[in-house]
Amino acid sequence: MDVLVPSVSLQLVKSFLKSQGLEYSVTIEDLQALLDNEDEEMQHNEGQERSNNSFNYGAYHSLEAIYREMDSIAGDFPELASRVKIGHSFENRPMYVLKVSPQALQEA
Q1: In this structure, which long-range contacts are made by residues 84-89, counting pairs with CB atoms below 8 Å and at least 24 apart in sequence?
Q2: Containing H/E element for 88?
Q3: Where in this chain does the record put each Peptidase M14 domain (predicted)?
């Protein structure tokens, strides 16, 4: 199981696990640094994509960027693709998928 432990509690949690004879390993030393790096990478990728008008499917993107790409695909290929709302997130935000099908236009 993965557990997120605040840095101020790390030694206490490690001591407790050790006292109980439980093995553990730290997989990410500094989660905030990792998140900051991913955010920088996303911003860099989005800047490059805007400058050469392409979308890097192998890179991290914000949800807004993903939804923009879905809209672009659906707009470019309306006979094959449509953006479909599949529900709401826990935060009550709409969630979408890109439906690819010859009947996409008929069912949208």
Answers
A1: 84/108
A2: strand 81-88
A3: 59-108
CA distances from 27 to 1, 24, 66 (A): 11, 9, 28
Compute how many other C-beta atoms are within 10 angstroms of the C-beta atom of residue 80: 15
**Which residue in the block uniquely carries the two structure tokens 């439906």?**
99
- pTM higher than 0.70 for the full model? no
What is the pLDDT at residue 48? 74
pLDDT tens for each residue of 3-16 = 999 989 999 999 99
Residue that the structure tokens 């599949």 belong to: 86
pLDDT over 70 (residue 104)? no
Report the alpha-carbon distance of residue 35 to residue 27 in Å, rounded: 14
Distances (CA, A) of 55 to 43, 47, 69, 103: 13, 10, 8, 25
Q: Please report the pLDDT score of residue 107 as a whole number.
A: 54
Asked if residue 98 lies in contact with residue 81, where contact means CB atoms within 8 angstroms, the answer is yes
